[in-house]
Amino acid sequence: MGDQTARVGAGSTVRTAVIWRGLQAEIDRRAADGPLRVVDVGGGSGGFAVPLACQGHHVSVVDPSPNALATLSRRVIDAGASRTV
User: Fold this and answer.
1) Better-scored residue on pLDDT, 8 or 68
2) Considering the domain boundaries, does residue 84 fall inside one?
3) What is the pTM of this model?
4) Is the separation of the CB atoms in 56 and 50 below 8 Å?
5) Is 85 contained in some domain?
6) pLDDT at 67
7) Which of 31, 40, 59, 71 is the most interior residue, by most CB within 10 Å?
8) Selection from 67, 70, 72, 66 nearest residue 52 by Cα
9) Angle, helices 2-9/14-30, rounded to nearest 10 degrees
10) Domain limits at 44?
11) Which residues have CB under 8 Å from 23's CB, separation 6+?
């Protein structure tokens, strides 16, 4: 978990922090053999997708909001998360 959990949890709600802990535990369990391919449906601005991509996973975000996807694009660049689409 480490640094990525702190990045997600820092400005997040308690609900988001709890979801992240469960998600990270499952990702860690399944990623034993290498990076995962993750589809984040309704992923918005990438609150979960960007930290996962920073961990080296291949993440695709699907969201109907052009504004959210524009924000996601900026977050990807700022984080250097090249594996988020």
Assistant:
1) 68
2) no
3) 0.78
4) no
5) no
6) 97
7) 59
8) 72
9) 150
10) 2-79
11) 48
What is the distance between the alpha carbons of residues 23 and 75, in angstroms, rounded to a whole number? 20
User: Which pLDDT belongs to residue 9?
Assistant: 45
Q: At 28, which helix (H) or strand (E)?
A: helix 14-30
Within a domain: residue 20?
Answer: yes
Copy the structure tokens of residue 22: 């469960």
Number of domains in the chain: 1
Assigned domain for 44 exists: yes
Q: Which amino acid is at 67?
A: N
Report the distance separating Cα 63 and Cα 40, nearest Å.
8
pLDDT digits (tens, 9 = 90+) for 10-64: 456 888 889 999 999 999 999 999 999 999 999 999 999 999 999 999 999 999 9
The CATH number given to whatever domain includes residue 17 is 3.40.50.150
